[in-house]
Every structure is written in C-alpha cells, then in structure tokens.
Amino acid sequence: MAHEKNISKAVIKRLPRYYRFLGELLNQGVTRISSRLLSEKMGITASQIRQDLNCFGGFGQQGYGYNVNVLYEEIASILGLDRQVDAILIGAGNLGRAVANHMEFEQRGFRLIGIFDENPALIGQTIKGVLVRSTDKIEPFCRVYHPTAAILCIPKTVTKEISDRLIDAGVKGFWNFSHYDLALNQKERGIVVENVHMSDSLMTLSYELKTLLSEEN
C-alpha cells in the first residue's frame, strides 16, 4: 500500500464520493461491480477509479470487479469513519444549529460532545441533545473532555482568536464555515484544516450557468 501521506489531495477528495455511491449500491442490493459500471454511475473514468484505489492497495479482482461491501468498508477505514473523534461546535446560530441538527456526525467518524456560543439567549439550550455552553467555558471543557476537532460556525472577525484558543486547548482539526481562511500551513503545527466556502460553490454555479447560457444564445 502506498504511504498515505504521499497521496494527492485530489484522490482523497474523491474517496467520500466512492463511499457515498457504494453505500447507494449496497442499499440497492448490488454485491459486486466492475470499474466500468462504477465509472458510468459516477462520471469518473474507469482508469481513474483503478488508479485511485490502487493508491490504497487496489481491492479489485481481474474478471470479477469489486466486492461492494468489502470496498465500502475499506474506504470507511481509510477515511477513519470506523472510529469516533470527539468534536465541539462553536457558534449555535442559524448555521451552527443547522449543522448540528442535520449532519450525521456518528456516520462520518465524529461524535459531537459540546456546543458553545457567546449569546446569553442561546446558552443553556440543547441542540440535538447537546448543551450549549458559553464560549468562556471552552478551555475548562477541553481540559476535561479533550476534543480533537472543532466545527466553526462563527463570524470572520472572531475566527482567528477562537481558533488560536482551541489550538492552545489541544484541538487538532478544524471544519471551518467562517469566511476566514484558517492558514493551510497549519500542518507544520500538527493542525489540519478544512475550509468550507458555500459562497464559492454558489459562484462556481453562477459561472457554469453563465457559460451554458452564453453557448445557447
């Protein structure tokens, strides 16, 4: 198996798609599939699928294809979905509440153990069974429960201050929904960051629509 630290970000970003499509195949009762058929379903070339999976050892058999359940479980293991990382969410406003309520953390390798906000009106409420605490309580909470990851649903203006506090408190990974790009060189400090920009995705759609409509005219 290739050393996973040397695998490109592009390959890693395709793994959740493989996992999602394989899950759908399992729900349909499909037990095995060729790279060609998987290619047709996913819109990725068969050679790309084989190349991606060979980064982790292959998993396919000549003339048989892939055992859907085995491949599904292998990708879950590669993604770390077979373990539970304790996470906290900072920001219990509309976005934070939506993320807490609708993201299936346990099926994605995480367990939400704490929620924090600075709004007195929200402190003391529960969201999906998790108590909302004051942001003043972040450090004492981390000393007791040692969360590994943090989800940031907070304003851009406070993101650096909050993230620095969390790093000092031992948090290693950030799923960042704020409009502040946490430095991507954090790996030098043993920190990993996934910046999420929904507005970027919407603007990409705008570009694609502009291109499509200009071709039609």
TrEMBL record:
> DNA-binding region located at which positions?
17-56
| Xref: NCBIfam families | PRK05472.1-4 (NF003990), PRK05472.2-3 (NF003994), PRK05472.2-4 (NF003995), PRK05472.2-5 (NF003996)
InterPro entries, sorted:
CoA-bd, NAD(P)-bd_dom_sf, Rex_DNA-bd_C_dom, Tscrpt_rep_Rex, WH-like_DNA-bd_sf, WH_DNA-bd_sf
Cite the entry's keywords alphabetically.
Answer: Cytoplasm, DNA-binding, NAD, Repressor, Transcription, Transcription regulation
SMART domains according to UniProt: CoA_binding
Describe the task this protein carries out.
Answer: Modulates transcription in response to changes in cellular NADH/NAD(+) redox state.
Which species is listed as the source? Answer: Merdimmobilis hominis
Q: One short Pfam family name for this protein? A: CoA_binding
**Residues binding NAD(+):** 91-96
* Molecular functions (GO terms): DNA binding; DNA-binding transcription factor activity
**What Gene3D superfamilies does its record include?**
NAD(P)-binding Rossmann-like Domain, Winged helix-like DNA-binding domain superfamily/Winged helix DNA-binding domain
Domain (CoA-binding): residue spans on this chain: 80-181
Q: Where in the cell is it found?
A: Cytoplasm
Q: Please give the HAMAP family that the UniProt record associates with this protein.
A: Rex
GO BP, sorted A to Z: negative regulation of DNA-templated transcription; response to redox state
Q: Name one GO cellular component term.
A: cytoplasm
Q: How does it assemble?
A: Homodimer.
Q: What is this protein called?
A: Redox-sensing transcriptional repressor Rex
Q: What is its main location?
A: cytoplasm
UniProt lists the family membership as follows: Belongs to the transcriptional regulatory Rex family.
